[in-house]
Specification:
heterodimer, A: Rieske Iron-sulfur Protein, 3-stranded antiparallel beta sheet, 3 helices, B: mainly alpha, Cytochrome Bc1 Complex, Chain C, Helix Hairpins, 2 domains
């Protein structure tokens, strides 16, 4: 087609019209309105005020826990082991080549300074969530009967399908005999 | 849809592939984009879209409330307060749902009176209309059961009174009531089954609404003149005209809705429903929600127990007969000057019955209720049939276009006002 034959016979939408403005404005208002409408419904799914209040930190008195004993408590619906470790258990936990572990972590990193006898870990196997059995397994830490995961006296995974060590919840010592689970050390 | 063959051709290869397997795009196109709509529809014709919006709104808010509500007699009231106080934006979802029910009924009453005024129930729309009455009955059942769920004083005693109505049925009445209750009185089994049915019925309503819209699309919409579309220029395509008008009307309605929700969320309710249900104490003044008041007045107007129940159900049953009770050959009341006056008297009587329903059944309220109830039935059973024969209607316009543009003197009778509608469909 010769360029000279390309005449300006069709109306070219060169400038935006009022209609374009209205379409864009209406579309934008609909998007903003829609988002405003959806937001409260999505927010309503979040933990409600009562659940949040019930999730506040819990205090645990350590004095009744004998040496060698493992105690179970709940915080935010999750199980937590509080283990009063014996001297042998502490030594076994420390005398480990950390680099050889599946999830390398020194025992000192899993307890509070000066409080090595207190091991506090979440009580669900990191494989698929079963509660492991205390003082069992090759290392006398925990043994998970579901699929055979083995944890040592520091709660670190030593065998079986679990990928990582038993995690440590946030906690702090309010005194030598009392901990607050759910709260890191205050300044 | 029968006289509008689909002109939809998919543009993309995927569109063609999908359309040949499930022609839903063509269906949407022929029903809601190309569908010819009378050009003279007023905002009274937007209430169908408003009702569809309210149904979806009630279902969405209801599903979310069901995530936080406990349908057990010992915990229901407290769970509603938990929603109001603890759940994030729970107060908003609850008020949207409670006031949404009232808004739903405001819209449905406007829609119904629009049908009565313009004769939208007349042939060939009888089935469309009857489906609508069925939807209304389902709405009443749903609203009644929903009001029981908070398990307040009004919830409990409203449930007691309304379920006791069925004991008026001779022979089997008491058994039916005990089956409704699931016990010897309104209690936890009643609450549990009302919750289940309250969740179910809106989806039944949704199904009947689909039938209702399908039945509408056969003859198409009625319009203020009552005369059908005769040629292309009488109509405009659904999109953009009806689409934008419906969206605009829904937005205005949402503002109206929002005013109740945010400024006076408890006005339409009853304060006694903030008192936990007490089977030992009946509130001094039991009233149903405002949208049931006219029927409540009719129920109480008849001094006989069974008679009152029959009258109340008959008040809605008579609506089913409208297409055949109305003998007028003219559809729209706009052209029926005599009936128009009776129509507005009927509206006033309905409002009066509503007001009477909120009053105690004492003194002159009783007599007036009886007169109003009698007039209500006379309107349907006497006035409607007789007036059709006796009345002299106004002359109808030649076409919808003519009623909008006026009779044009230009050309041999052909209306010249076509320049404003370049997209009219034939």
């Amino acid at each position: 087609m010769l360029e000279s034959q390309v005449a300006e016979t069709t109306t070219h939408v060169a400038e935006p019209t009022r209609r374009d403005f209205l379409y864009i404005a209406t579309g934008a208002a609909a998007v903003v309105g829609g988002a405003t409408l959806v937001w409260p419904f999505v927010q309503s799914l979040a933990p409600d005020a009562a659940t949040v209040a019930a999730g506040a930190p819990v205090e645990v008195d350590l004095t009744p826990i004998a040496e060698g004993q493992i105690v179970k408590v709940f915080w935010r619906g999750k199980l937590i082991f509080i283990r009063h470790r014996t001297a042998e258990e502490i030594k076994a936990a420390e005398d480990v080549n950390v680099a050889s572990l599946r999830d390398p972590q020194a025992d000192s990193a899993r307890v509070k300074p000066g409080k090595a006898q207190w091991l506090i870990v979440y009580g669900n196997c990191t494989h698929l969530g079963c509660v492991p059995l205390g003082q069992q397994g090759e290392y006398h830490g925990w043994f998970c009967p579901c699929h055979g995961s083995i944890f040592d006296t520091s709660g670190r995974v030593r065998g079986g399908p679990a990928p990582i060590n038993l995690p440590i919840p946030p906690y702090t010592f309010a005194s030598d005999t009392k901990i607050v689970i759910g709260q890191e050390a205050t300044a | 849809m029968s006289d509008h063959p689909t002109t939809y051709v998919p543009k993309s290869a995927f569109g063609k592939w999908f359309e040949s397997r499930l022609p839903i795009a063509g269906l949407v196109h022929s029903s809601f984009i190309a569908f010819p709509v009378p050009r003279n529809l007023t905002y009274f014709w937007t209430f169908g879209a408003i009702l569809a919006f309210m149904l979806v709104a009630q279902i969405v808010t209801g599903v979310f409330l069901a995530m936080y509500y406990t349908p057990n007699a010992g915990m229901a009231f407290q769970s509603v307060e938990h929603i109001m106080r603890d759940v994030n934006y729970g107060w908003l979802i609850r008020y949207l749902h409670a006031n949404g029910a009232s808004m739903f009924f405001v819209a449905v009453y406007v829609h119904i009176f629009r049908n009565f005024y313009y004769g939208s129930y007349k042939a060939p729309r009888e089935v469309l209309y009857i489906l609508g009455v069925i939807i209304f009955l389902l709405m009443m059942a749903t609203a009644f059961m929903g009001y029981v769920l908070p398990w307040g004083q009004m919830s409990f005693w409203g449930a007691t009174v309304i379920t006791n109505l069925f004991s008026a049925i001779p022979v089997v009445g008491e058994t039916i009531v005990s089956f409704l209750w699931g016990g010897y009185s309104v209690g936890n089994p009643t609450l549990n089954r009302f919750f289940s049915l309250h969740f179910l019925l809106p989806f039944m309503i949704f199904g009947v609404v689909i039938l209702h819209v399908w039945a509408l699309h056969v003859p198409g919409q009625n319009n203020p003149t009552g005369i059908p579309i005769k040629s292309g220029k009488d109509a405009v395509p659904f999109t953009p005209y009806a689409t934008i008008k419906d969206i605009f009307a829904v937005v205005v309605f949402m503002i109206f809705f929002a005013w109740w929700v945010f400024y006076i969320p408890n006005y339409l309710g009853h304060a006694d429903n903030y008192i936990p249900a007490n089977p030992a104490v009946t509130p001094s003044h039991i009233v149903p929600e405002w949208y049931f008041l006219p029927f409540y007045a009719i129920l109480r107007a008849i001094p006989d127990k069974l008679g009152g129940v029959i009258a109340m159900f008959a008040a809605i049953a008579v609506w089913f007969l409208m297409p055949w009770l109305d003998t007028s050959k003219v559809r729209s009341t706009a052209y029926r000057p005599l009936y128009k006056q009776f129509f507005w008297v009927f509206v006033a009587v309905c409002v009066l019955l509503g007001w009477l329903g909120s009053k105690p059944a004492e003194g002159w309220y009783v007599v007036v209720s009886q007169i109003a109830t009698a007039y209500y039935f006379i309107h349907f059973l006497v006035i409607l049939p007789v007036l059709g024969f006796v009345e002299r209607p106004l002359p109808l316009p030649n076409s919808i276009l003519e009623s909008v543009m006026g009779v044009q003197k230009v050309g041999a009778g052909m209306p010249a006002g076509a320049n404003a509608a370049p997209q009219s469909k034939g």
